[in-house]
Amino acid sequence: MSDNTFGQDSTLAAVPTTGNWERETLEKLVFATVREQRATRRWGIFFKLTFLGLAFFALWAFFDFDFTGSDSETLGRHTALIEIDGSIESEGSGSADVVIPSLNKAFADSGSVAVVLRINSPGGSPVQAGNIVDEIARLKQAYPAKPVYVVVDEICASGGYYIAAAADKIFVNKASIVGSVGVLMDGFGFTGTMEKLGVERRLLTAGDNKGFLDPFSPQSDKHKAHAQAMLNEIHQQFISVVRTGRGKRLKETPETFSGLFWSGAKAVEMGLADGFGTVETTARDVVKAEDIVDYTAHEGLPERVLKKFGASVGAGMVKTLGPSARPVLR
User: Fold this and answer.
1) Can you say whether residue 76 is alpha, beta or left, with left for phi > 0 and alpha for psi between -120 and 50 degrees?
2) Collapsing DSSP states into helix, strand and coil, what is residue 91?
3) Burial label, 265 (beta-carbon count in 10 A; 0-12, 13-18, 19+)
4) pTM for the structure as a whole
5) How far is CA 234 from the centre of its chain?
6) Rounded distance, CA 168 to CA 185, Å?
7) Which carries the bigger pLDDT value, residue 87 or residue 316?
8) Distance from C-alpha of 11 to C-alpha of 200, rounded to nearest angstrom
9) Are 107 and 146 in contact (CB under 8 A)?
């Protein structure tokens, strides 16, 4: 009898009382609610800070873009500066979408007496360079009293020189790289490698020439001749811009338009440039307006991030679709 009583008592001792069980459950619910509220507050703070950060950068980008315009209105007589640094492509400081608005601001400002382009570029797109050259020609007609000068930094070759040739005068450093008046279209052919690996190219097209310069198919004489004719045409456009821009100053030789490039000192001898100088010496000694106002459009951080993301997506799409060849001034 006593053994059964002892066994019953020990079992009851192992089970919590009703009051303890309710208290523990309540405590767990309270702690879970507190943790959820803390997590909610943390996410709320995160989103608020993110919004404030984006708002700050948007305002910074806006004022950064319009900063030059507001300052130039109070500076009076000055030399306008626009920098082209890097490849002449659809993105970056060498794109027509960036350079042309800067040119319009610089010419339209009543205080600017001349426009100086500081170029440091190995070349790039003939389309972008051509659009910039056409806009320079238009603005020179609209503002005949405002000359355009180019100051070459490290390099002004191919598409960079395409733009420079439209200026009234070109100033270089004696060690600058200048020239490379030519056009190229490059790519690769993998047909030999594919044959060795036993890989078969299966290309379906609607249109006899739709597979033009496909790197995985044999190159036809017809396509090669067509590409060469197109390059020659763009080359002649380049030559015409140089001859028109440089005029009688150009001491033309068989090598002038061969795609070679030269030092700044040699470029002056050949008539590809007019003399030696920097932005400062040009503003002081040529323009006679020492105050320099930079009209280069500088993108804000949000714009750069969004463009970078777009460029990455676009590059991924291009890689997915396969390689393509295009003329390049380089």
Assistant:
1) left
2) coil
3) middle
4) 0.69
5) 23
6) 30
7) 87
8) 79
9) yes
* Residues 249-286 pLDDT 10s: 999 999 999 999 999 999 999 999 999 999 999 999 99
Q: Which helix (H) or strand (E) holds 153?
A: strand 148-157
The one-letter amino acid code at 248 reads K
Which single residue is written with the structure tokens 């360079």? 129
SS3 of residue 63 by DSSP: helix
313 pLDDT above the threshold of 70: no
Map residue 156 onto helix, strand or coil: strand
Alpha helices in the chain (DSSP H): 2-14, 18-75, 96-108, 126-142, 159-164, 191-197, 221-246, 264-270, 279-281, 301-321
**Among 28-32, 97-101, 250-254, 289-293, where is mean pLDDT lowest?**
28-32
CA dist 90 and 60 (Å) reads 24
Gap between the Cα atoms of 240 and 227, Å rounded: 20
Burial class (CB in 10 A: 0-12, 13-18, 19+), 43: exposed
Give Rg (Cα) of the chain.
33
Which residue, 170, 167, 97, 111, is CA-closest to 139? 167
| Cα separations in angstroms, 262 against 34, 168, 213 | 73, 20, 32
Q: Which residues of 133-168 are buried (b: 16+ CB within 10 A; e: fewer)?
A: bebbeebbeeeeebbbbbbbbebbbbbbbbbbbbbe
Distance CA 152, CA 84 (A): 10
How far apart are alpha carbons 330 and 234 in whole angstroms? 13
- Classify strands 148-157 and 177-179 as parallel, antiparallel or unpaired: parallel
